[in-house]
Amino acid sequence: MTSKEPQTVDLKTVEPQQLMGLRDQLEGEMQNLSASATALQSAAGQFGSSGRAIERLAHQESGQPMLMPLTSSLYVPATLDSASNVLIDIGASYYVERSPADGTDYCKRKVNMLKDQLDQIGQVMREKQRIMQQVTAVLQQKLAAQQRAQQS
C-alpha cells in the first residue's frame, strides 16, 4: 500500500552523488518558484494599476478629452462617452461590463488572491531553502570526510 505522505530520509545515509543531485533539483525548483513569484508580483501590480485607473475614470465627466492607450507606448486622442460602465478582461479574451465600483472590487480581489498565492510560494521557498541548507551541510561533511580518508 503506497502513501501520499512524504517520506523522511536520513541525509547521512545518502551517497554524496545523490546529495548533489538533490541539491541541483532543489536549486531548479527554487528558480522555478522564484520565476513564478516574479510573474505573480507583476500580475498583482497590473491589477492594482487597473483598479486605480478605474477609480480615476469613475470621477471623470462625459465629453472630457483623454488619451486612449492602444499599446503600452501608443496613445490616441479620444473623448470619454460614459464612465458609468467599464469592460473588464476576465481572461481567455472574455470581457464583462461592470460598474466602476464592481471593476475596482474585482481588481482588489485579484490582487488579494495573487498576494495569497505569493505568500504560499514564499512558504514553499523557505522550506526548500531550509532543506537545501541541510543537504549542503551534510554534503560538505561527507566530502570533507572523503578527503580526509584519501589523505590518510
UniProtKB/TrEMBL annotation:
A GO MF term: unfolded protein binding
Pfam families reported for this sequence: Prefoldin (PF02996)
Protein name, entry field: Prefoldin subunit 5
Domain of life: Eukaryota
One GO BP annotation of this record: protein folding
GO annotation, cellular component aspect: cytoplasm; prefoldin complex
Family the UniProt entry places it in: Belongs to the prefoldin subunit alpha family.
Organism from which the protein derives: Apatococcus lobatus
